[in-house]
């Protein structure tokens, strides 16, 4: 905090058209904590699949990733509208970070022993801190007080229901009740903003989502690094391991490029579109992190550390890659005008990727197919025309025109 800044600033909200609205150091620090929880979830998925417990591990991964994702969503959208960066705000965010660390610490226990208590505690810590933030915003921002109170009340009620479910619901019904509570959590923003949306900055939100995409793709980068390390340990004598490492490298680069092929802030044009785009990223992020876990399973298979075969490892990569491709297609391509042939490229590629586990080199072939998709998209992208040169008005006139 810079010298001379007030310790407490009224939480009146930030303007939706604020210029140069970039991610703050505190937001980046929060993301750094979130990546620890994402890594813990992906590592547990990797070990579960390698040990032959894919169904239980996939279910546990989906449940824990929701807790991580939804806590990040609550922080990010609140910060987009009310980031005052004063002392109370920073302390509340630090509490949310502590909750994320508690979640990360409890993930292995949840996967191995089905003990969700620590994950639940971390989640509630994050959400209670968010309730404090919304109540503070309701006090300081009268025009948005009604929806801010609804945000706080809805979030608080859901935490009570989570605790009640954990204490009362039998283990055999917990997954079903969990899904009902997820629907309740997803409904809170819809109810809170039904008559007046909370302020948010489209470019800032697009940047924040892009940063988290990079974070979850980091799981694949890590798995690719492990793969190349295994190749080196084997003195580059195992061609299967070398092809896997190359495929992982191609895959992660192509996945990054496909997501950042063009800016996404132009898609956030309305409340309904923002909800579709924002919620839809759950599929992008959970699949991107799972790709890294699948690559790690492939390394385990080729180094004789797994209880499954390469077909399972290939499926552990192919399925999340297909989900990733179709999710980007649904969120980034469908809302935009595009030729039918170009619109069909990604679904066709996703179908071909799902067939790669039947081949001898499924991970390398998956990477090659995604790179091929990227190449075709680049080649079929209409070239931008250079606009004619115009004479800029003097500075004073520019100010008046703006």
Fold and architecture overview:
It contains 13 helices and no strands. It has helices at 25-50, 54-82, 87-113, 117-140, 145-168, 174-192, 202-233, 239-259, 271-302, 310-333, 340-354, 362-379, 395-401. Helices cover 74% and strands 0% of the residues. With 402 residues, it is an all-alpha fold. The protein starts with 24 loop residues before the first helix and ends with a helix.
Give a topology summary.
Layout: H1 25-50, H2 54-82, H3 87-113, H4 117-140, H5 145-168, H6 174-192, H7 202-233, H8 239-259, H9 271-302, H10 310-333, H11 340-354, H12 362-379, H13 395-401
Provide mean pLDDT, rounded. Answer: 86
N- and C-termini, Cα separation: 32 Å
Biggest sheet, in brief? none
**What value does the Rg take, in angstroms?**
23 Å
Would you list the SSEs in sequence order as H and E? Answer: HHHHHHHHHHHHH
Q: What structural class do you assign from the helix and strand content? A: mainly alpha
Low-pLDDT stretches are: 390-402
Proportion of helical residues: over 70%
Give the percentage of residues in beta strands: under 5%
Highest-level CATH class of the largest domain: Mainly Alpha
Question: What global shape is seen?
Answer: globular
In the CATH hierarchy, what is the architecture of the largest domain at level 2?
Answer: Up-down Bundle
Total strand count, please? 0
